[in-house]
Amino acid sequence: MTREEKDLVLQDLCARLPYSPICHIIGENGADIDDILTTSTIQNLDVWVVKPYLRPMSSMTEEERDYVVKHSLGYTASIGGGKKDEKLYFHFKAESFDWLNAHHFDYRGLIDKGLAIKVTEGNNPYKD
């Protein structure tokens, strides 16, 4: 992991800390666990591999999307060939980022960079 990637993960994890995200952690001794993020985890980021479990933005339900639209400063829609290709661009307030963090959404693109683990129906540590 490059220094830039570590910095990006550190920024993201620090913002998520109050929301108890679950991370996959590989310690320097090779221990391999899934656990709730702690300040100790963040402090050991230089020697541990830490990947949070995050939801892709595309996994938002209609209800969640409506909430985000209602509580953002505004959005614009860019519609491709059909409804399936629709892309939404939001302009968020600080409270919007808090909500996204609380619901474990990947708004920084960490999943695509291999820095986070995608939450799926079959791989969801947040499921009750």
Roughly how many Å apart are the termini? 32 Å
Shape: globular
Going by helix content, strand content and strand pairing, the class is: alpha/beta
Share in β-strands: 25-35%
Helix and strand succession? HEEHEHEEHEE
Task: Please tally the helical runs, counting DSSP H or I stretches of 4 or more residues.
Answer: 4
The total of beta strands comes to 7
Report the helical percentage.
Answer: 25-40%
Which regions are unreliable across 5 or more consecutive residues at pLDDT < 50? none
pLDDT averaged residue by residue: 86
Q: Tell me the domain tally.
A: 1
Rg value: 16 Å
The major sheet is characterized as:
5 strands, mixed
Textual characterization of the structure:
By secondary structure, the chain is α/β, with parallel strands linked by helices. It has one domain. 30% of the residues lie in helices and 25% in strands. It contains 4 helices and 7 strands, in the order H-E-E-H-E-H-E-E-H-E-E. The strands form 2 sheets. Strands 1, 2, 3, 6 and 7 form a 5-stranded mixed sheet that branches. Strands 4-5 form a two-stranded antiparallel sheet. Strand 4 and strand 5 form a beta hairpin. The longest helix has 14 residues. The protein is globular, with a radius of gyration of 16 Å. The N and C termini lie far apart (32 Å).
Task: Please describe the structure with a list of short key phrases separated by commas or semicolons.
30% helix; alpha/beta; 7 strands; five-stranded mixed β-sheet; 128 residues
